[in-house]
Amino acid sequence: MKVDDLSDEQVRQIVAEMKRNKVSLDQIDSYAQQKGIPADQVLKLKDRIRALNLEKEFTTGTPTNAKLEETERTVDNENIISARDVQPMSLEEKRRMKIFGAELFSNKNLTFEPNLRMATPPNYRLAAGDELVIDVYGYSEVQHKLKVSPEGYVRIPYLGPVYVNGLTMEEATTRITKQLGTIYGGIKSGNTFVQISLGTIRSIKVLLIGEIDRPGSYTLPSLATVANALYVSGGPNENGSFRDIQVIRNGAPIARFDLYDFLTNGDLTNNIVLQDQDIVKVNPYKTRVELVGEIKRPAIFEAKDNESLQDILNFAGGYTDKSLRDMLRATRINNKEREVVNIPAEQIATFKLRSGDKIFVDSVLNRYSNRITITGAVFHEGEYALEGNMTVADLIKKAGGVKEEASLSRAVIFRLKEDYTPSGSSFNVQDALSGKQTIALQREDSVVIYSKLGLREDYQVKISGQVNAPGYFNYADSLHLEDLILMAGGLRDAASLQRVEVSRRIRGKTYSPNDSTTSIVAQFDLSTDMSAMTGYALQPFDEVVVRKSPTYSEQASVSIDGEVVYPGAYTINSKREKISDVMKRAGGLRPEAYAEGAVLLRKTFVNASDSAFLDSKLQVYYNKMEDSTAITKMQSAVSRKEQLLGINLQKILAQPGSKFDLLLEEGDIIKIPKKLQTVQLFGEVYFPKKVRFDNNIGFREYINGAGGFTNGALKRRSYIVYANGEVKSTRKVLFFNRYPKVKPGAEIYVPAKKESRGLSGQEALGITTGIASLALIIVTVLDKIK
Predict the structure, then answer these.
(1) Are residues 656 and 578 in contact, defined by beta-carbon separation less than 8 angstroms?
(2) Superfamily designation of domain 371-450
(3) How far apart are CA 777 and CA 131, in angstroms?
(4) What SS3 class is residue 603?
(5) Which CATH class is domain 82-113+202-285?
(6) Domain made up of 131-198: CATH architecture
(7) Band of the pLDDT at 35, cuts 50, 70, 90?
(8) Is pLDDT of 61 > 50?
(9) Which segments constitute the SLBB domain (predicted)?
(10) Are 93 and 106 in contact (CB under 8 A)?
(11) What is the pLDDT of residues 530-570, one digit of tens each?
(12) Quick one: 288-361 is in which CATH superfamily?
């Protein structure tokens, strides 16, 4: 980049880019180094920035690209700069985008940027601002980079000025070589050679006028063409012509550019290189027509006077595969109204277009002229062509014949009547194939051959109980009982070989009013390896049940935790094993054990019947409750996996086998704590707390130690929960409360009184009125008695 060659607007663009990248004026040296700009050019750039008073742009928020909104827009030698605002498209813009070729100017991947790195064209004409690179090599070697002065000269050292303005590169090369021959004798003798090329090119100003999106004056590279100028200006607007674009030079048109040549044929012959002060004029369109429907590129096309509808179809890429080509339809605007025009295929090449025509290309009908269909129990179902005098037998043969499971007694043909209403008729497949029945086919006939398997319910058998994979299995002929057990993965370890039960539906039985049998049930005994076949063949929908052996039982265990000699898990030896039995196996209690605090945790639901029974009772209980909080608490307690069962371990150990000695169940947990030394107080006392147990004091003394009863305490409802889960409440003896005895580990609960609510004003008024009415009635009755 050479700063001297930059215009003021290009310097503003550089400052705008630096500001977007948050580069300050102090950081311009490192920023320029990243961009590959030499240090001497950086100093010149700083001077240009100060001269244009752009230093404040690095500290203020004023956008440096504000002048892009003006008519003057600049394109530098490397990049075409265009200010395109990203806005939602208006109706005019949407209509413009329907015009064929308009997308060319909205495609960001296509810039029409002039190639500044190609070899200089021989017909390129030099002008002020161009840089020539003169390379002399051979016996004499020297290189000059010379700028064409505003007067049109290049000043060659030791030679003087040479006029090159307006010359082509070829003409300038001849003239400069001839002049250099006067100081380099080897040029004439052929020992020294001269090569001249174009260095930095100049900028030119081009004026774009007419029906263009952003008309105005533009600064372009001198290698820019008509297409470059059109792209920078946004291209023709909604009324602009894409086919009549004039280049005016020195007041006279010198070329007409047709964008359709490029869009359809890739021809850029008339895309000439512009010169300084050229005018590019986009004329209004004369004739536009719109093509819609089944064509490859539906759009609005511009037509010249000598072009027909066939030419427009060629611009649109031709018909699609589904187009109806025999007749096109068009709507046309006349002087007073619209009309519809039919265009036969033979008139398309000669049909004269009128601006505003809208041509519709219809699609072929979504129907077939010779289609027939066969589905069902044939080997190759699908669509086939209807041939002359074709019958059902011919169609079945084309479909590979019927399958083995096909139902040959009856099939159906679905047919369309003349008014396209559906109808159906049946035929015998066997008769049709043997020739006894001949059925001619028609267009759109659909033949359905049914399968025997599809005409009945799926045959299945079921097995449940003590097998590895119970469930439903597909029935097969000659399927026996043992076969089904093998299909179910064999018997489980708990299965009983006796009394395997098979239940069977009653099918096809003659009705008898006295017969109330609903199913047939049979029982069989199996051998261990099922080698002895029972010979019992199953039938569809049979259900087999393999029951559990009555002598089979799985191990059940209980757990003892706490102060026993051998805590841990113990297996229940018999169904009659009790707590005392497992305590003996655990070695008995340790000296520090507290037997009165022993508890038993048992599962909430032992089996499915317990669960169903408890759920039913709880549902009735919940329905009677009014307080949702109480229901929630009850449900929470029931949802726990284990519940506390109070036991009296002292009596159990003292009297084994007594009523206190419970039978053990799977999952029971016996917990025996150490000797407890505290008592916990809850509820309506002034200072609920945990206190040391003292055998010499009673219930009231513990309450007094916690501050006594509160005013809201319900003393007569106080109760104690002992360490083993046993609960004892306060009893009323004459006019006195008799409180339960306190033991180690006990929890004392003092409930609260219910809040009493006085009568409201309305309730008091109602009672007073009722009493007054009653008194009046009594007085009236007494008067009558007198």
Answers:
(1) yes
(2) Outer membrane lipoprotein wza domain like (3.10.560.10)
(3) 131
(4) strand
(5) alpha beta
(6) 2-Layer Sandwich (3.30)
(7) low
(8) no
(9) 205-282
(10) no
(11) 665 456 889 899 999 999 988 888 888 999 998 999 999 99
(12) Outer membrane lipoprotein wza domain like (3.10.560.10)
72 neighbors 208 (Cβ within 8 angstroms):
no
Nearest to 28 by CA among 14, 40, 42: 42
- For residues 134 and 217, give the distance between their C-alpha atoms in angstroms, rounded to a whole number: 33
Q: Which fold has domain 678-750?
A: Outer membrane lipoprotein wza fold like (3.10.560)
pLDDT tens-digit profile of 380-400? 999 999 998 899 999 999 999
Rounded CA gap, 49 and 46, in Å?
5
CB atoms within 10 A of CB 295: 20
- Considering Cα of 118, then 124, then 129, then 135, what sign does the dihedral take? positive
Cβ density class 336-346: b for 16+ within 10 Å, e for less: eeeeeeebeee
CATH architecture of 557-604+640-672: Roll (3.10)
CB 526, CB 548: distance < 8 Å? no
> Residue 73: its pLDDT value, please?
39
| Sheet of 203-210, strand order | 73-74, 216-221, 203-210, 279-284, 240-249, 252-257
Residue 629 pLDDT grade (very low, low, confident, very high; cuts 50, 70, 90): low
Superfamily of domain 460-508+517-546 in CATH is Outer membrane lipoprotein wza domain like (3.10.560.10)
Joined together, the tokens standing for residue 32 give: 């320029």
Contact 658, 652 (CB under 8 A): yes
Q: Is the dihedral of CA 120, 125, 131, 132 positive or negative?
A: positive
Cβ partners under 8 Å of residue 89, min gap 6: 97
Residue with tokens 């090449």: 349
Q: Which amino acid is at 619?
A: Q
